[in-house]
């Protein structure tokens, strides 16, 4: 059971002040390393939670009498929102996207393995990668007038019958060999995305430990 799921069981409902405290305790484990203090990095406070809710980035809280109550889903939404902000995504690009994701989707975005990327964790968020740190991508119907006329007036050239082009050879895989201890090496492929958060590093270490444990058990002579 993950740490987040333990919190869900121990604190199924939280008042706003407790919700903010739990969020600020967990945030450092899920934020990228070496990100300058800015959007997504400052502590959460009740005013921000209410603002995010008003904007539709968080589900509306439950009500018990006149008191707002926050649950596990709110915690996942807020942690994911703050991580995306820290990674450079704008709130306008995120929009109400978080409200459309299931709890499992949010967990995958937040802690989806040691090579977490927004695009890989959830295809619904792939579009965000195209608009981070730049404007909205230009759609064909938004092309400049002259460019659009050229596209609509120029007839497609008739392709000559020819043999299909040969498939391009896949690029060679480049690996780096790391010696950890005498008898223990790690091979890292160049395109491997190293962990960027404390949580991802812990996940990677646990995964390596599990593999070593299984290896040790398989090599143990039968009784």
In short:
This protein has 223 residues and is mainly alpha-helical.
Poorly predicted ranges:
113-124, 133-156
Radius of gyration: 24 Å
Beta fraction of the residues?
A: 5-15%
Shape verdict:
extended
Q: What is the number of beta strands?
A: 4
Order of helices and strands: HHHEEHHHHHHEEH
Share of helix, binned:
40-55%
Structural class by SSE content: mainly alpha
Largest sheet: 2 strands, antiparallel
Cα separation of the termini? 32 Å
Which strands sit side by side, in order, in the main sheet? 1-2
The domain tally reads 2
Mean pLDDT: 74
Describe the structure.
This protein has 223 residues and is mainly alpha-helical. It has 2 domains: 3-131, no CATH class; 175-219, no CATH class. It is 46% helix and 9% strand. The protein has 10 helices and 4 strands. The strands form 2 sheets. A two-stranded antiparallel sheet has the order 1-2. Strand 3 (175-181) and strand 4 (184-189) form a beta hairpin. Helix 2 (16-30) crosses helix 4 and helix 4 (72-86) packs parallel to helix 6 (103-111). The protein starts with a helix and ends with a helix. 20% of the residues are buried.
Strands, helices and their partners?
Blueprint: H1 3-10, H2 16-30, H3 46-55, E1 62-64, E2 67-69, H4 72-86, H5 91-94, H6 103-111, H7 118-121, H8 126-131, H9 145-153, E3 175-181, E4 184-189, H10 198-219
Antiparallel strand pairs: 1-2, 3-4
What key attributes describe this structure?
two-stranded antiparallel ribbon; mainly alpha; 223 residues; 10 helices; 2 domains
